[in-house]
Design goal:
Largest interface: A-B, 72 and 56 residues
Shape of chain A: globular
Largest sheet of chain B: 6 strands, parallel
Radius of gyration of chain B: 21 Å
Transmembrane segments (chain A): 30-48, 60-80, 86-104, 111-131, 137-157, 214-236, 267-289, 301-334, 346-366
Subcellular location (chain A): Cell membrane
Distance between the termini of chain B: 54 Å
Helix content of chain B: 40-55%
Function (chain A): Part of the binding-protein-dependent transport system for D-xylose. Probably responsible for the translocation of the substrate across the membrane.
Helix content of chain A: over 70%
Strand order of the largest sheet of chain B: 2-1-3-4-5-11
Number of helices of chain B: 12
Number of helices of chain A: 16
CATH class of chain A: Mainly Alpha
Keywords (chain A): Cell inner membrane, Cell membrane, Membrane, Plasmid, Sugar transport, Transmembrane, Transmembrane helix, Transport
Largest sheet of chain A: 2 strands, antiparallel
Radius of gyration of chain A: 22 Å
Oligomer: heterodimer
Strand content of chain B: 15-25%
Structural class of chain A: mainly alpha
Order of helices and strands of chain B: HEHEHEHEHEHEHEHEHEHEHEEH
Number of domains of chain A: 1
Protein name (chain A): Xylose transport system permease protein XylH
Number of strands of chain B: 12
């Protein structure tokens, strides 16, 4: 916009406007921003009075979106670095189960269980990355293998140790633990109580919770989502390492020749993806108090969908964390919002498919602008 | 390009409009939401959908069915939150995992929504979360009753084909059956997965490896149908003692032909139908049954199959 100041003839003016327009277009967040506005407009029109925008409703789709954000940030950075991780969903189930087994079955303190699980899962992420980098196999295949390996253990271990596939009781053992509230707690409780007392948000009408606000704080899940967005965004856009990530995914060979430690970057991104999946799992286990063998099913695709809606290219080298976060928001709002709008839940997939297709078409168009191919 | 993206979103919006209009049109009377733990792939829940649809029609209330597409129980907890936020008159839900679901359900009750627990869970758990009542079949008891019946028929060893091993209630059926027989569950439970070809081949492989197996127990049509095929293929159909949970077209045929000894019907139709009727009458006239309702176990054998055959998979 600022460069369109020269007082020249009409045709030049037009050319400049197009170039500015194109400049705006190649921002990876664009699709996400347009989509977010469209989705919110849609639901404000069709579901405004359905409870979707009450405090309880907002919290509902915020939490679901935050879940998508947590895994999408990891998937986004990895995808920009040129790789996929299909084991994210299984990793969520596996990490949750490890915490439950360590803390409930083996009686470890919860903080130790959480930290050990983090170390274990990030190490598995490193193994994923090492195999991909060392063998040169597509990450699609390697992580597909881990999808099954981890899911298998997630069913086998609790079956062997406890003779059941859902291990509960984590809430009881997490009582008084110093680390557990970092994942399962809520913040700003006082503020929400104040809001409730002053009639600014709804309160419970009966039972032991009468008078308490229906939303009593911001879950740590949302805090983690925001922290990961900030971390990922700063890492990607403000640091040398961020450039390395782009370079590794753009053209690994060229990057290597110019001194970028491509293998190291990719392995670290696999570890970061595993870290994100583990954050997701710990938050889930702490909130619900149990780990189940079917947790996280298909979440790997949801992460990838959020990232793709958010404008990252499947081929790597291009994308943004903000875009991925917006993609996750769109995903969460659409998934939960269709219910409020009274749409049959099976049609959610149709909607998601349409949005995904639209996003991919948009991405292809953008790639053509960047690369100049026609 | 901007406009292109908008066009796509608008096209999607327009595509969804008839759906929105259709569902908004029926909005009169009370509104009830049924939440289940079943993944989309589980056809057994079709009967449940028929049950609430018929009850909704007869009572003149609006009913909705919601489920987590992959069967993930944490997702189900969010769906209950969401259902509560939409302010219905009542929520009918399964209690597939007490730890995961007690929070959302208690919160729904606390915000003034009446809840009835159906299908999975127990009367005790229903009371604990503040639900009005429990309508369903206590799974362990049903398995135990089946085990005792098999014991009376002289059975001493069995194979339990479990198609959803991650669901504790299905494990309880196998465990109950083993306890009813008075033997250890041990290695008798087979994690079969849900793919029919895999189930069939695993059952055949198990029976080949364990030729002394005297009975087969399946936990629903998902595992029963392929098991029937497996038994036909290896020639054990009719020779091996075969019992199953739930009914379906193939199971009814199997009972008729004598391949299946009995089917345990928990009457899913009633589990969906009764809560809607009970809640509507409670909300309109303040009447409520004083106890939980056991919709099963009812043993279905070759006697009196006609009506069951007619409605299997639809209302039965």
């Amino acid at each position: 916009m600022s460069n369109a100041t020269q007082p020249t003839a009409e045709p030049d003016e037009r050319v400049k406007e197009i170039s500015a327009f194109r400049k705006a277009l190649i921002r990876p967040e664009l699709g996400g921003i347009v989509g977010t506005v469209a989705v919110f407009t849609f639901f404000l029109l069709f579901a405004a009075d359905s409870g979707m925008f009450t405090s309880q409703g907002v919290m509902n789709w915020s939490v679901v979106s935050a879940q998508f954000v947590i895994i999408a940030v990891g998937a986004c950075l990895l995808m920009i670095a040129g790789e996929f991780d299909l084991s994210v969903g299984s990793m969520i189930g596996f990490a949750g189960m490890m915490i439950a087994i360590f803390s409930v079955s083996y009686g470890w303190p919860v903080w130790a269980a959480i930290l050990t699980t983090f170390v274990l899962c990030v190490a598995i992420g490193a193994v994923n990355g090492l195999i991909v980098v060392r063998t040169g196999l597509p990450s699609f295949i390697v992580t597909l293998a881990f999808l099954f390996i981890l899911r298998g253990f997630t069913i086998f271990l609790p079956q062997t140790i406890e003779r059941k596939t859902i291990i509960g009781g984590v809430t009881d053992v997490a009582e008084g633990d110093w680390l557990a509230p970092v994942f399962g707690g809520k913040i700003f409780k006082g503020f929400f109580t104040w809001l409730g007392e002053n009639g600014l948000i709804e309160t419970f009408e009966r039972g032991t919770n009468t008078g308490k606000p229906v939303v009593d704080g911001i879950p740590m899940l949302i805090v983690w989502a925001i922290l990961l967005i900030v971390f990922g965004h700063v890492l990607l856009t403000k640091t040398k390492f961020g450039n390395w990530i782009f370079a590794s995914g753009g053209d690994a060979e060229a990057a290597r020749n110019s001194g970028v430690p491509v293998s190291k970057v990719k392995i670290l991104m696999f570890m970061f993806t595993a870290f994100c999946a583990t954050v997701f799992a710990v938050c889930q286990v702490m909130e619900f108090g149990s780990a189940g063998a079917d947790r996280g099913l298909l979440k790997e695709f949801e992460a990838i969908i959020a990232v793709v809606i958010g404008g990252a290219l499947l081929t790597g080298g291009y994308g943004s964390v903000i875009g991925a976060a917006l993609g996750a928001l769109i995903f969460g709002v659409v998934q939960q919002g269709l219910f409020f709008a009274g749409v049959e839940s099976s049609l959610f997939r149709v909607f998601l498919g349409v949005i995904l297709l639209g996003a991919v078409i948009l991405n292809t168009y953008i790639r053509r602008i960047i690369t100049g191919e026609r | 390009m901007n406009s292109k993206a908008k066009k796509i979103v608008m096209a999607a919006a327009i595509a969804a409009m008839p759906v929105l209009a259709a569902s908004a049109a029926s909005a009169e009377g009370e509104r009830y939401v049924l939440v289940s733990h079943a993944p989309d792939s589980d056809s057994w829940w079709n009967t449940i959908k028929n049950g609430i649809a018929l009850a909704g029609e007869q009572m003149g209330v609006e009913v909705e069915y919601r489920n987590p597409p992959t069967g993930d129980l944490a997702d189900m907890a969010r769906i209950i939150d969401q259902a509560a936020a939409s302010g219905p008159d009542g929520i009918i839900t399964t209690l597939a995992d007490f730890d995961v679901l007690k929070g959302p359900i208690s919160n729904a009750v606390a915000s003034g929504i009446d809840v009835i627990i159906m299908n999975t869970g127990t009367g005790e758990q229903a009371r604990e979360v503040g639900a009005l009542m429990y309508v369903g079949q206590p799974e362990y008891d049903a398995g135990y009753a089946a085990g005792q019946r098999a014991k009376d028929d002289g059975i001493g060893s069995f194979l339990c084909v479990n198609h959803a091993i991650q669901q504790p209630t299905l494990v309880e059926r196998c465990q109950g059956f083993a306890d009813g027989l008075g033997i250890e569950l041990g290695e008798s439970m087979l994690d079969s997965g849900v793919d029919p070809a895999e189930i069939k081949n695993r059952v055949m492989a198990y029976l080949t490896a364990n030729p002394d197996t005297e009975a087969v127990l399946t936990l629903g049509p998902v595992s029963a149908d392929p098991t029937l095929l497996a038994l036909e293929e290896n020639g054990m159909a009719g020779a091996i003692y075969f019992g199953t949970f739930d009914l379906g077209e193939e199971i009814v045929k199997g009972i008729k032909s004598g391949t299946i000894k009995w089917g345990i019907d928990q009457q899913p139709f009633l589990q969906a139908y009764l809560p809607v009727v009970i809640m509507t009458n409670y909300h309109r006239y303040g009447v409520l049954p004083g106890n939980n309702i056991n919709s099963g176990p009812g043993f279905v054998t070759a006697d009196g199959l006609e009506k069951i055959e007619e409605f299997a998979g639809e209302y039965r």
